[in-house]
Design brief:
Blueprint: H1 2-10, H2 15-30, H3 38-61, H4 70-88, H5 91-98, H6 114-131
Helix pairs in contact: 2-3, 2-4, 3-4, 4-6
């Protein structure tokens, strides 16, 4: 998907973008690897590749120089991975990984999805701290 997107946009095959798309998927799953089921990890990684394509195109459109695409891979895909924890984390996996025995809806979207709000607030705080 990533390689096809760059072929359409740039009219050439770009192996660097393919590798960065793969890295973006891997960065995306890092935050939630202990608490997601395999289907959640797969969806998170695939969407991470697409987030990379969009963030890279955005930087090029804004004429911001990032020759290694470090922000799209680590910043944008990392932020998506942070949010994905709030979407795909399962309470049984949180208990197995961290020993938390009570589930109050923070880790299981079936119980209200409060963890997504926590992840979003943390991501915004980190972005504000880092960028300003």
């Amino acid at each position: 998907r990533v390689l096809v997107a760059f072929k359409k946009r740039e009219k050439t095959w770009d192996i660097g973008s393919l590798m960065n798309g793969i890295l973006g998927g891997l960065v995306s799953i890092t935050a939630g690897c202990a608490v997601m089921e395999p289907y959640g990890a797969l969806v998170t990684g695939v969407i991470g590749g697409m987030v990379y394509v969009g963030a890279s195109a955005m930087l090029q459109g804004l004429e911001i120089d990032d020759p290694l695409d470090a922000f799209p891979v680590h910043g944008a895909c990392g932020f998506w991975g942070l949010l994905a924890v709030g979407i795909f984390a399962q309470s049984k996996n949180v208990e197995a990984a961290y020993g938390v025995s009570s589930t109050t809806g923070f880790y299981d979207t079936a119980h209200g999805g409060n963890q997504f709000d926590v992840q979003l607030a943390f991501g915004v705080c980190v972005a504000l701290w880092s960028g300003g």
